[in-house]
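stage 2 :: seqdesign
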């Protein structure tokens, strides 16, 4: 029997994003509230109002930081 393949989610809850990124949930919520993370880029909202973080959006955001 073939094992099912599991694909990593590209949009995750704030709680899981905190675990994955090392940022606190509070820090993530603050970035959203302050407009540092934008809906449609780093953050997406579900039809029922849930907030999800784009892992690709997060990685792009980090990549836009100052390089030394």
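stage 2 :: out
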């Amino acid at each position: 029997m073939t094992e099912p393949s599991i694909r990593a989610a590209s949009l995750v809850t704030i709680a899981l994003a905190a675990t994955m990124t090392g940022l606190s949930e509070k820090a993530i919520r603050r970035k959203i509230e302050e407009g540092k993370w934008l809906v449609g880029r780093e953050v997406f909202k579900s039809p029922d109002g849930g907030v999800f973080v784009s892992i690709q959006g997060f990685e792009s955001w980090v990549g836009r930081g100052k390089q030394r």
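stage 3 :: structure notes
- The chain has a mean pLDDT of 94.
- Strands lie at 11-13, 43-45, 51-54.
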